[in-house]
Amino acid sequence: MNNERKVALVAGANGVIGGNLVDHLVSLGDWDVIGLSRRGGADRGRVRHIAVDLLDPADARDKLRGLTEVTDVFYAAYQDKPTWAELVPPNVGMLVNLVDAIEPVARGLRHISLMQGYKVYGAHLGPFPTPAREDDAGHMPPEFNVDQQNFLERRQSGKAWTWSALRPSVVCGFALGNPMNLATVIAVYASISKELGVPLRFPGEPGAYTSLLEMTDAGLLAKATVWAATDERCANQAFNINNGDLFRWSGLWPKLARWFDLEVAPPLRMSLETVMADKEPLWNEMRERYGLTASYDEVSAWRFGDFVFGWDYDVIADGSKARRFGFHEFVDTEEMFLSIFDDLRKRKVIP
Asked: Is the distance from CB of 182 to CB of 308 less than 8 angstroms?
């Protein structure tokens, strides 16, 4: 396979998952990359971007009709909606439209990689059996991750290409304007707390402060995604991908606060979506004072922060299947957060 041309089609190329995946593919040196997103992007080196509306089957067919060289599809696109049921039609529809458009023209298609998450196990609904395993029993729908995998399994039957499904925990890395970026939520929340002269209080449910959690570094996930797509042992398999360590916010929160030179105070339950709703004028003042580069809209993912900080139960999955199949990478979660904060400061996203 290493002697054959490898062309990746990355859907959701501007997100925290897709963007880090594009960077990793480029770093490997033997991939050409085509990034798909609504707004497109600037071409560079072996990466070119296509602006496409995957919700529109006609636009998908028109924009992808010439991509005959694609060998691997990496699907990391996501459309946010307010309810679990409303998430299903657009997120399943985008995957169906992409496969309908690319499968007939990419005659050398080898693999379709699907990005999922712990919602497959019902993590979004409440306490679920942990550590979750890839062969755990399903749960009552709606759940678009499950529907997407069911579609790929049906579509792949009798075909030469294979699929894989990656199931990370909360993914952390650099991306702006992303609805699910916890590291940016914490960094901006801490920066505003410091500007206001208040301690960094954990804003979640009381039980969330002491529950066991794990995270998934976006760079680690990118490595796992390419591994699962290119190792024949992983054909038609799903894998939990996490950093490999566990933590409680009660232990990690003071260490994150220390990076910002902030004191901590006892947790105080509050909705970030509510208390941060009036902070745009302050953020604009901070942009002016510190020369920051990002708008408030680009760094605001407060609804997602409320979602994660509301988990007053353990959210962990068994990552041993990936290790048994040959993936042995790991990341220290505390070092991950601090490295992302360093990067955000270097990029002038936070002071």
From this structure: yes
Question: Number of C-alpha atoms within 13 angstroms, CB side, residue 327?
Answer: 29
Q: Summarize pLDDT for 222-244 with one digit per residue, the tens.
A: 999 999 999 999 999 999 999 99
pLDDT tens digits for 54-64? Answer: 999 999 999 99
pLDDT tens profile 258-294:
999 999 999 999 999 999 999 999 999 999 999 999 9
Contacts of 328 (CB under 8 A, 6+ apart): none
Q: Of 100, 206, 217, whose CA–CA distance to 169 is shortest? A: 217
Instruction: Read off φ and ψ for residue 89, nearest 5 degrees.
Output: -55, -50
Give the residue among 202, 238, 173, 171 at the shortest CA–CA distance from 311. 202
**Dihedral over Cα of 192, 197, 200, 202: its sign:** negative
d(Cα 337, Cα 113) in Å, to the nearest integer?
26
> Nearest 5°: CA angle at 88, between 84 and 90?
125
d(CA 23, CA 35) in angstroms, rounded, equals 11
Please report, in angstroms and rounded to a whole number, the separation of the first and last CA atoms in the chain.
46
What one-character DSSP code corresponds to residue 207?
G
- The whole-model pTM stands at 0.96
Amino acid identity, position 171:
V
How many C-beta atoms surround the C-beta of residue 155 within 10 A? 17
